[in-house]
Protein backbone atom coordinates (compact mmCIF):
# COMPACT_ATOMS: atom_id res chain seq x y z
CA UNK A 1 0.00 0.00 0.00
CA UNK A 2 1.32 3.48 -0.86
CA UNK A 3 2.28 5.56 2.18
CA UNK A 4 -0.20 8.31 1.29
CA UNK A 5 -3.18 5.95 1.41
CA UNK A 6 -2.56 4.44 4.84
CA UNK A 7 -4.97 5.42 7.64
CA UNK A 8 -2.31 7.00 9.88
CA UNK A 9 -1.28 9.61 7.27
CA UNK A 10 -3.21 12.80 8.03
CA UNK A 11 -4.58 15.01 5.25
CA UNK A 12 -2.33 17.84 4.11
CA UNK A 13 0.81 16.71 5.94
CA UNK A 14 4.08 18.02 4.44
CA UNK A 15 5.93 14.79 3.63
CA UNK A 16 9.03 16.74 2.53
CA UNK A 17 9.68 18.26 5.97
CA UNK A 18 11.15 15.66 8.35
CA UNK A 19 9.96 15.69 11.96
CA UNK A 20 11.54 14.60 15.24
CA UNK A 21 8.54 12.36 15.96
CA UNK A 22 9.03 10.38 12.74
CA UNK A 23 12.85 10.36 13.10
CA UNK A 24 12.49 8.89 16.63
CA UNK A 25 9.95 6.35 15.33
CA UNK A 26 12.48 5.24 12.70
CA UNK A 27 15.33 5.01 15.24
CA UNK A 28 13.12 2.79 17.43
CA UNK A 29 12.35 0.48 14.48
CA UNK A 30 8.83 1.81 13.78
CA UNK A 31 7.13 2.15 10.41
CA UNK A 32 5.40 5.54 10.76
CA UNK A 33 7.94 7.61 8.84
CA UNK A 34 8.58 8.85 5.31
CA UNK A 35 11.58 8.97 2.95
CA UNK A 36 12.71 12.41 4.16
CA UNK A 37 12.55 11.29 7.79
CA UNK A 38 14.67 8.23 7.00
CA UNK A 39 17.18 10.38 5.13
CA UNK A 40 17.40 12.66 8.20
CA UNK A 41 17.77 9.60 10.43
CA UNK A 42 20.75 8.39 8.40
CA UNK A 43 22.45 11.78 8.77
CA UNK A 44 21.59 11.74 12.49
CA UNK A 45 23.15 8.27 12.84
CA UNK A 46 26.29 9.46 11.07
CA UNK A 47 26.53 12.39 13.48
CA UNK A 48 25.70 10.24 16.52
CA UNK A 49 26.35 6.52 15.90
CA UNK A 50 24.75 5.62 19.27
CA UNK A 51 21.41 7.21 18.31
CA UNK A 52 19.40 3.98 18.39
CA UNK A 53 20.71 3.04 21.86
CA UNK A 54 20.08 6.60 23.04
CA UNK A 55 16.45 6.32 21.89
CA UNK A 56 16.03 2.91 23.54
CA UNK A 57 17.59 4.11 26.80
CA UNK A 58 15.26 7.12 26.81
CA UNK A 59 12.26 4.87 26.25
CA UNK A 60 13.46 2.61 29.05
CA UNK A 61 13.81 5.59 31.42
CA UNK A 62 10.26 6.65 30.51
CA UNK A 63 8.94 3.19 31.45
CA UNK A 64 10.84 3.06 34.74
CA UNK A 65 9.81 6.58 35.70
CA UNK A 66 6.11 5.81 35.08
CA UNK A 67 6.38 2.67 37.23
CA UNK A 68 8.15 4.74 39.92
CA UNK A 69 5.33 7.29 39.90
CA UNK A 70 2.74 4.50 40.13
CA UNK A 71 4.64 2.94 43.07
CA UNK A 72 4.43 6.38 44.67
CA UNK A 73 0.65 6.43 44.39
CA UNK A 74 0.06 8.39 41.18
CA UNK A 75 -2.75 7.19 38.93
CA UNK A 76 -3.01 9.97 36.33
CA UNK A 77 -0.49 11.19 33.78
CA UNK A 78 -0.05 14.11 31.40
CA UNK A 79 2.52 13.07 28.77
CA UNK A 80 3.81 16.16 26.94
CA UNK A 81 5.55 15.47 23.62
CA UNK A 82 4.33 11.88 23.71
CA UNK A 83 5.45 10.95 20.18
CA UNK A 84 4.26 8.30 17.75
CA UNK A 85 2.95 5.28 19.69
CA UNK A 86 5.50 2.50 19.84
CA UNK A 87 6.29 -0.38 22.17
CA UNK A 88 5.61 0.45 25.84
CA UNK A 89 3.41 3.52 25.67
CA UNK A 90 2.58 5.27 28.93
CA UNK A 91 -1.05 4.09 29.02
CA UNK A 92 0.05 0.49 28.44
CA UNK A 93 2.60 0.64 31.25
CA UNK A 94 0.10 2.36 33.54
CA UNK A 95 -2.91 0.15 32.70
CA UNK A 96 -0.80 -2.94 33.15
CA UNK A 97 -0.16 -1.78 36.73
CA UNK A 98 -3.69 -0.43 37.35
CA UNK A 99 -6.42 -0.32 34.67
CA UNK A 100 -7.97 2.69 36.45
CA UNK A 101 -5.00 4.93 35.53
CA UNK A 102 -5.86 7.87 33.26
CA UNK A 103 -3.52 9.26 30.62
CA UNK A 104 -3.66 12.38 28.45
CA UNK A 105 -1.07 12.51 25.69
CA UNK A 106 -0.06 15.79 24.04
CA UNK A 107 1.89 16.22 20.81
CA UNK A 108 1.83 18.75 17.98
CA UNK A 109 2.96 16.38 15.24
CA UNK A 110 0.24 15.21 12.87
CA UNK A 111 1.31 11.56 12.50
CA UNK A 112 1.81 11.17 16.27
CA UNK A 113 -1.73 12.46 16.84
CA UNK A 114 -3.38 10.50 14.01
CA UNK A 115 -1.80 7.21 15.09
CA UNK A 116 -2.55 7.86 18.78
CA UNK A 117 -6.19 8.62 17.92
CA UNK A 118 -6.46 5.33 16.03
CA UNK A 119 -4.92 3.37 18.89
CA UNK A 120 -6.95 5.04 21.65
CA UNK A 121 -10.33 5.21 19.88
CA UNK A 122 -11.95 2.62 22.11
CA UNK A 123 -9.98 3.38 25.28
CA UNK A 124 -12.04 5.32 27.85
CA UNK A 125 -9.04 6.06 30.09
CA UNK A 126 -6.57 7.56 27.60
CA UNK A 127 -6.70 10.20 24.89
CA UNK A 128 -4.51 12.58 22.89
CA UNK A 129 -4.64 16.34 22.55
CA UNK A 130 -2.99 17.94 19.53
CA UNK A 131 -1.32 21.08 20.90
CA UNK A 132 1.97 22.91 21.34
CA UNK A 133 3.30 22.22 24.84
CA UNK A 134 5.06 25.61 24.87
CA UNK A 135 1.60 27.21 25.17
CA UNK A 136 0.63 25.75 28.57
CA UNK A 137 -2.69 27.62 28.88
CA UNK A 138 -4.00 26.00 25.68
CA UNK A 139 -2.67 22.57 26.63
CA UNK A 140 -4.13 22.80 30.14
CA UNK A 141 -7.52 24.00 28.86
CA UNK A 142 -7.67 21.19 26.28
CA UNK A 143 -6.56 18.65 28.90
CA UNK A 144 -9.22 19.79 31.36
CA UNK A 145 -11.78 19.58 28.55
CA UNK A 146 -11.09 15.86 28.14
CA UNK A 147 -12.44 15.36 31.69
CA UNK A 148 -9.93 12.56 32.22
CA UNK A 149 -7.60 14.18 34.77
CA UNK A 150 -8.55 15.48 38.22
CA UNK A 151 -6.32 18.51 38.81
CA UNK A 152 -7.11 18.41 42.56
CA UNK A 153 -5.21 15.11 42.78
CA UNK A 154 -1.49 14.56 42.04
CA UNK A 155 -0.60 14.15 38.36
CA UNK A 156 2.55 12.66 36.86
CA UNK A 157 3.69 15.21 34.29
CA UNK A 158 5.99 13.61 31.72
CA UNK A 159 8.41 15.59 29.55
CA UNK A 160 10.56 12.80 28.12
CA UNK A 161 12.93 13.56 25.27
CA UNK A 162 11.14 16.77 24.37
CA UNK A 163 12.60 19.89 25.99
CA UNK A 164 15.67 19.75 23.74
CA UNK A 165 13.20 21.03 21.12
CA UNK A 166 12.33 24.07 23.26
CA UNK A 167 14.79 26.98 22.84
CA UNK A 168 15.76 29.25 25.75
CA UNK A 169 13.97 32.07 23.89
CA UNK A 170 10.70 30.31 24.76
CA UNK A 171 11.62 30.42 28.46
CA UNK A 172 11.41 26.71 29.32
CA UNK A 173 11.54 27.34 33.08
CA UNK A 174 8.38 29.45 32.86
CA UNK A 175 6.64 26.82 30.72
CA UNK A 176 7.47 24.04 33.19
CA UNK A 177 6.44 26.34 36.05
CA UNK A 178 2.97 26.78 34.53
CA UNK A 179 2.42 23.01 34.46
CA UNK A 180 3.84 22.73 38.01
CA UNK A 181 1.52 25.46 39.32
CA UNK A 182 -1.51 23.87 37.65
CA UNK A 183 -0.95 20.53 39.41
CA UNK A 184 -1.60 19.51 43.04
CA UNK A 185 1.11 19.05 45.68
CA UNK A 186 2.57 15.56 45.43
CA UNK A 187 2.51 15.72 41.63
CA UNK A 188 5.68 14.51 39.96
CA UNK A 189 7.76 15.51 36.94
CA UNK A 190 9.53 12.94 34.78
CA UNK A 191 12.03 14.75 32.56
CA UNK A 192 14.78 13.82 30.10
CA UNK A 193 16.69 15.77 27.49
CA UNK A 194 19.84 15.76 25.32
CA UNK A 195 23.02 17.28 26.75
CA UNK A 196 26.51 18.24 25.53
CA UNK A 197 27.91 17.05 28.88
CA UNK A 198 28.27 13.41 27.81
CA UNK A 199 29.31 13.43 24.12
CA UNK A 200 29.98 17.07 23.11
CA UNK A 201 31.33 16.51 19.58
CA UNK A 202 28.51 14.18 18.59
CA UNK A 203 25.97 16.55 20.13
CA UNK A 204 27.32 19.51 18.13
CA UNK A 205 27.01 17.46 14.93
CA UNK A 206 23.44 16.44 15.80
CA UNK A 207 22.45 20.06 16.40
CA UNK A 208 23.72 20.88 12.88
CA UNK A 209 21.82 17.96 11.33
CA UNK A 210 18.55 18.86 13.06
CA UNK A 211 18.62 22.44 11.77
CA UNK A 212 17.17 21.05 8.51
CA UNK A 213 14.16 19.48 10.30
CA UNK A 214 11.06 21.15 11.69
CA UNK A 215 12.44 20.43 15.17
CA UNK A 216 15.87 22.06 15.73
CA UNK A 217 17.60 20.97 18.95
CA UNK A 218 18.88 22.78 22.04
CA UNK A 219 20.98 20.62 24.39
CA UNK A 220 21.30 21.65 28.05
CA UNK A 221 23.89 21.09 30.77
CA UNK A 222 23.13 19.12 33.92
CA UNK A 223 23.05 22.40 35.89
CA UNK A 224 20.56 23.92 33.45
CA UNK A 225 18.35 20.84 33.71
CA UNK A 226 18.49 20.94 37.53
CA UNK A 227 17.33 24.58 37.36
CA UNK A 228 14.27 23.49 35.33
CA UNK A 229 13.15 21.41 38.36
CA UNK A 230 12.48 24.60 40.33
CA UNK A 231 9.70 23.88 42.86
CA UNK A 232 10.34 20.12 42.68
CA UNK A 233 12.42 17.99 45.03
CA UNK A 234 14.59 15.85 42.75
CA UNK A 235 14.45 12.22 43.87
CA UNK A 236 17.52 9.94 44.07
CA UNK A 237 19.78 9.41 42.17
CA UNK A 238 19.32 12.97 40.85
CA UNK A 239 19.85 14.07 37.26
CA UNK A 240 21.85 11.27 35.63
CA UNK A 241 22.27 9.56 32.24
CA UNK A 242 19.00 7.73 31.45
CA UNK A 243 20.71 4.34 31.80
CA UNK A 244 21.62 5.14 35.42
CA UNK A 245 18.15 6.22 36.57
CA UNK A 246 16.79 3.29 38.64
CA UNK A 247 18.15 0.64 36.22
CA UNK A 248 16.23 -2.66 36.33
CA UNK A 249 19.23 -4.95 36.72
CA UNK A 250 22.51 -3.11 36.74
CA UNK A 251 23.27 -1.49 33.42
CA UNK A 252 21.57 -2.48 30.17
CA UNK A 253 24.11 -4.74 28.38
CA UNK A 254 27.01 -3.42 30.47
CA UNK A 255 27.53 -0.38 28.24
CA UNK A 256 29.17 2.88 29.27
CA UNK A 257 26.20 4.82 30.76
CA UNK A 258 27.50 8.03 29.21
CA UNK A 259 26.58 6.58 25.80
CA UNK A 260 22.96 7.04 26.89
CA UNK A 261 23.45 10.65 25.69
CA UNK A 262 20.42 12.01 27.53
CA UNK A 263 20.16 13.21 31.12
CA UNK A 264 17.06 12.32 33.11
CA UNK A 265 15.43 12.67 36.48
CA UNK A 266 12.20 12.73 38.46
CA UNK A 267 11.01 15.39 40.89
CA UNK A 268 8.18 15.61 43.43
CA UNK A 269 6.30 18.89 43.73
CA UNK A 270 7.09 20.43 47.10
C1 LIG B 1 11.81 12.34 20.66
S1 LIG B 1 10.07 12.29 20.75
C2 LIG B 1 9.85 11.69 22.41
C3 LIG B 1 8.64 10.81 22.56
C4 LIG B 1 8.39 10.29 23.97
N1 LIG B 1 8.14 11.37 24.90
C5 LIG B 1 9.54 9.47 24.48
O1 LIG B 1 10.32 9.98 25.31
O2 LIG B 1 9.72 8.33 24.06
C6 LIG B 1 9.67 14.02 20.96
C7 LIG B 1 8.22 14.35 20.67
O3 LIG B 1 7.96 15.68 21.12
C8 LIG B 1 7.10 16.32 20.19
N2 LIG B 1 7.26 17.77 20.34
C9 LIG B 1 8.37 18.53 20.15
N3 LIG B 1 8.11 19.82 20.42
C10 LIG B 1 6.79 19.89 20.80
C11 LIG B 1 5.92 20.95 21.19
N4 LIG B 1 6.36 22.22 21.25
N5 LIG B 1 4.64 20.64 21.49
C12 LIG B 1 4.19 19.37 21.42
N6 LIG B 1 4.96 18.32 21.05
C13 LIG B 1 6.25 18.57 20.75
C14 LIG B 1 7.57 15.80 18.84
O4 LIG B 1 6.57 15.94 17.86
C15 LIG B 1 7.88 14.34 19.18
O5 LIG B 1 6.75 13.53 18.97
TrEMBL record:
GO terms for biological process: methylation. It holds the Pfam family Methyltransf_19. It comes from the Bacteria. One of its GO terms (molecular function) is methyltransferase activity. Keywords: Methyltransferase, Transferase. The keyword Transmembrane does not apply. The keyword Methyltransferase applies. This is S-adenosyl methyltransferase.
